[in-house]
Amino acid sequence: MNLTIGTGCAATLCLLLSYLRRCKNKQTNRPIAYILVNQVTHARLLPVESAHAFTYPTVSLLLPLKALEKNDLDLAGGWVFGYGGLYGRLTGLRPSGYLTDNENDGKFIWSKLARILEGRGYDSDALEDAWMMTMPSFLGYEGINPLTVYYCYKPEGQLWVVILEVHNTFGERHVYILEVGKGEDPTPKGFDHQWTFPRHFHVSPFNDREGFYIVSLTAPSHPPTKSRHNPSSPAPRPIVRIHYHPPDEPSSEAPGKPSIGPLKLSAIIRPVLSLPLTTPAWLFTLASSPFALLLTSPRILYQAWILHYRKRLDVFPRPEPKPATEAWDPDIAFPAGDRGGIGWQPEGPLEKYERKRVEAFLATRATETGVRVTLIPGKPSEPASDFPAHEGAEREHLKVYYLSPRIFTIIFLCPSAAHALLLGSESEKIFVPSSPELFLSVFNPSSSALHGDQQLSAGQQLRLRPIPHAVRSSSDLQIPAAHALELHSRGLSRLPRTALAISDLIVLWILLALERFEQFTFTALRARFVPGQEPWNAWERASVILECKKHPQ
């Protein structure tokens, strides 16, 4: 009996030792990723009376991208950490959470990274591998991931390009591409590289989008191609420091070019601990800081509360992302910035309805007027909408460049094309037509009988409610008895004309109610926008522009 037990124990011990040896061999051949326990410090220096600083810990991962894409970094079969999704695992990464937010660029981070490099004129074949520094999801929850850094290397192991992927709380994304050795500043003490570049993306509600970033960083200690298990390899601790400077007043030497102003904000991410990503180490890190991956959004909200209510900083409204499509013509439309936009807010159900109504109208009007109309979005993954006239009948071509689907809301809400042009183009700067005169010709009702003493339709009466008297009574802005879209209701043929009119009224009422609700909510919370920039006062801003046009100084 004792011999049998002893033999069984010996066999079990041999099997255990064999398993551990195989695991060790597998670990030896496995690419090494790293766990980074960071100390993050934010400091606001201006205005002086609102100065504020805070420090908090975070946990992130430094991952060799090629190995990540092959699932070579998965832990415990992907249950503890896995690539490809959020659910059914403790922590993970999904490709759709990074870089471009459309399926045309591929289902892998690597292919999307290559497309971004190619779009900026780089040869993606020169990309050997990249370190990706980011925060994974936890229990299916994916935070906003404010900053993901890609350290891109050439085959010889040389750091080539650093890509900063920035996310904001509105679900938008932007990349800044920094090439090593190109446009660099003198290297500050304690860092390997530094760049200064214009700011093009809205991040903080307490700053506008103008100004400059100065980014200083230390590179990882070795390229990802040398990340195989080597106990003697130093654990990388990449540091990222970001300084934000508002624009200074233009100098007399360069009156049209703003210079860099004083330091306003500073943020630094500094790893205090770096260790190889293994199942025991990762589980221990999560157990030591169980809420580290869940607190990013709550921290942002808490600090925003302090800045707004205690430090008395007013809120800047969110501007639409700058255009990034190649078809954008900055000579006609707004400046394109650095074309770094990669993620936009999705189109809502009301905007989809308004788009259908406008596009159905244009399909008819292009034929009626002989004017070809092309709607060109600033979002690169969204194709342009083209409405050709009959072949041989095309006389002119109207191009309308727009930043967001709000163009369809504005056209739907405004009582006439002239009102839409005043509000959407001159005041809020959501769209720009290649020819304002042609825009008015296409979007105005085709029948002159709509003007005069005819009674306004129910829809037009709703549209006039938020418009100030100074705008409604302007002789330069004629108000037709019926909206142009009301006269072209064949686009949604599945709905009878009466049902379509009722649908339009319901959508109009919802839009106006949402605007009032937004104003009520901010008033109830005693929240404050920068004076004059309140979202619900768009028509007041348009009224000022109209008055300036009437009485130019």
Low-confidence stretches: 1-26
Number of helices: 13
User: Biggest sheet, strands in spatial order?
Assistant: 10-11-12-13-1-2-5-7-8-9-14
* Relative strand content: 15-25%
Organism: Gloeophyllum trabeum (strain ATCC 11539 / FP-39264 / Madison 617) (Brown rot fungus)
Signal peptide: 1-25
Keywords: Signal
Pfam family, one: DUF1365
What does this structure look like?
Helix 7 packs antiparallel against helix 8 (417-427). With 553 residues, the chain is α+β, with helices and mostly antiparallel strands. The chain has helices at residues 2-29, 65-69, 109-119, 279-288, 296-310, 349-369, 406-413, 417-427, 436-443, 458-464, 469-472, 497-524, 538-550, and strands spanning 34-44, 52-64, 81-83, 91-93, 129-134, 137-138, 147-153, 159-167, 173-179, 193-198, 212-217, 240-245, 265-276, 341-343, 371-377, 385-387, 396-402, 431-433. The strands form three sheets. Strands 10-11-12-13-1-2-5-7-8-9-14 form an eleven-stranded antiparallel sheet. A four-stranded mixed sheet has the order 16-15-17-18. Strands 3-4-6 form a three-stranded mixed sheet, with no helix packed on it. Residues 1-26 have low confidence and may be disordered. It starts with a helix and ends with a helix. It has two domains: 35-310, no CATH class; 341-550, no CATH class. It is elongated and about 85 Å long. The protein has 13 helices and 18 strands. Keywords: Signal. It holds the Pfam family DUF1365. This is DUF1365-domain-containing protein. Residues 220-258 are annotated as: Disordered. InterPro entries: DUF1365.
